[in-house]
Amino acid sequence: MKEKKIPVSNKPCEAHHSTPTSHQRFHSQSIIMQIVILLAFLILAVHRISGCVNGSFVSTEGGSYNISCNTDWPGNDLSHLVLTDLTSCIDFCDSWNHQQVPALCIGVSFVLPGQANSGCWLKSVMSGPGIKNGYIVDSAKRNNVPSVWP
After folding, report:
1. What CATH class does 55-142 carry?
2. In Å, how far from its chain's centre is CA 126?
3. Which residues are within 8 A (CB) of 111 and not within 5 positions of it... i.e. 6 or more apart?
């Protein structure tokens, strides 16, 4: 049996090298847009916009606090309350001190919503510089803690 020769052309196939169709352009643009959105979410996750800014803060009752973003002081917990932001947590600390309870609240660690053990943790001791924790806990330490609260 004799083999049949198939003619081979050096000319590029027009179907694969033509101008992209509107469907192909739309699909490419859609993929690019999805990548841009994903990158935006990743940037927000890394920099997480919690409203936390390192520095001084004065509570509703006039207490002066030093805020440390992305920092935790584990242990020495007086109480826990599920709250949605650091400023409410600081106000909870001040109100705790006005209740004449045995131990004073000298600061707070606020675990962001969506994390295990989220909410406000009142602290009786906050020694040292705290522990950096990778964007899940913000803390505030009271300045000039009185030995007896009025």
Report:
1. alpha beta
2. 22
3. 117, 118, 119, 121, 136, 137
Burial track 101-138 (b if 16+ CB lie within 10 A, e otherwise): eeebbbbbbbbbeeeeebbbbbbeebeeebeebebbbb
Do residues 86 and 113 touch, judged by C-beta distance below 8 A? no
**Which residue do the tokens 């510089």 mark?**
129
Instruction: With 0.85 as the threshold, say if the pTM is over it.
Output: no
Q: Rounded mean pLDDT of 80-96?
A: 94
pLDDT in tens, 20-76: 677 677 777 777 777 766 654 444 444 444 578 899 999 998 999 999 999 999 999
Strands 77-81 and 64-68: unpaired
* DSSP letter string, 68-118: ETTEE--S-EEEEE--SSHHHHHHHHHHHHTTT-SS---EEEEEPTTSTT-
> What is d(CA 88, CA 98) in angstroms, rounded to the nearest whole number?
16
At CB < 8 A and 24+ separation, what contacts does 30-34 make? none
Contact by Cβ (8 Å): 41, 35: no
Residue 77: other Cβ atoms inside 10 A: 14
